[in-house]
């Protein structure tokens, strides 16, 4: 059984671990970053809707790291708990039991990132 990660620590660690790649394979990482920016640029869908889609895919792909980054962004974009939960409902519908298990991870990440910051 895997423990629910601390998503603040997880996203910080992933970002730190990607630093060497940003230097050593800079063209690849720059292209990946530009792809993300292009995909999330508002068009027919706004940025929040696109992030909700990415969150649903993160659940289906069972990617805790992806969950962390997308939930963090959704908290910044002002997503509501209801929007997160409806996204998870669709992900569970499409991915069954494994997606339900990762939906629990999303709810933990949401609690972590949507909680008021303490100083």
TrEMBL record:
GO molecular function: peroxiredoxin activity
Domain Carboxymuconolactone decarboxylase-like as annotated: residue spans: 28-108
Pfam family, one: CMD
Name this polypeptide is given: Carboxymuconolactone decarboxylase family protein
Taxonomic source organism: Ideonella aquatica
């Amino acid at each position: 059984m895997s423990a629910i990660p601390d998503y603040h620590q997880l996203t910080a660690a992933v970002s730190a671990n990607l630093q060497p790649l940003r230097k050593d394979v800079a063209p690849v990482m720059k292209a990946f970053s530009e792809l993300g920016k292009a995909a999330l640029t508002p068009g027919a869908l706004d940025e929040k809707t696109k992030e909700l889609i990415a969150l649903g895919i993160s659940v289906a792909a069972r990617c805790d790291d992806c969950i962390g980054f997308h939930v963090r962004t959704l908290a910044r974009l002002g997503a509501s708990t209801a929007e997160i939960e409806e996204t998870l409902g669709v992900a569970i519908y499409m991915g069954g039991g494994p997606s339900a298990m990762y939906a629990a991870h999303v709810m933990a990440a949401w609690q972590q990132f949507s909680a008021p910051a303490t100083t």
